[in-house]
Design brief:
Layout: E1 3-6, E2 10-13, E3 18-22, H1 36-44, E4 52-58, E5 66-72
Antiparallel strand pairs: 1-2, 3-4, 4-5
Bound molecules: zinc ion.
Length: 87
């Protein structure tokens, strides 16, 4: 059992959350001018790193907040104090 630290609710059971993907850079404003391979990489490319990565999580069975947090993919442990709610 893992506890996920929601910035709004505090630590809750992982079954209340849904993984929403890697935290990516903002969507390019000039997407129409990008080469196809660059756009495809932005839309469906995944880095899938080994180690600490920033991810998006959704407290779908709780407060409904979508937030980002750092997690070590080797241990599934969340990095304390790294959760950020959207502004
Ligand atoms: Zn919450």
């Amino acid at each position: 059992m893992h506890l996920v630290p929601c910035p709004w609710c505090g630590e809750r059971h992982e079954s209340e959350f849904a993984y929403a993907g890697e935290k990516k850079s903002p969507r390019p404003l000039d997407a129409g001018s990008l080469a196809d391979d660059v756009w495809i990489d932005y839309v469906i490319g995944r880095a899938n790193p080994r180690g600490v990565t920033r991810e998006k999580w959704w407290h779908v069975r709780g407060c409904g907040l979508m937030f980002s947090i750092e997690r070590d993919t080797r241990s599934h442990e969340f990095v304390a104090g790294s959760a950020e709610a959207p502004r």
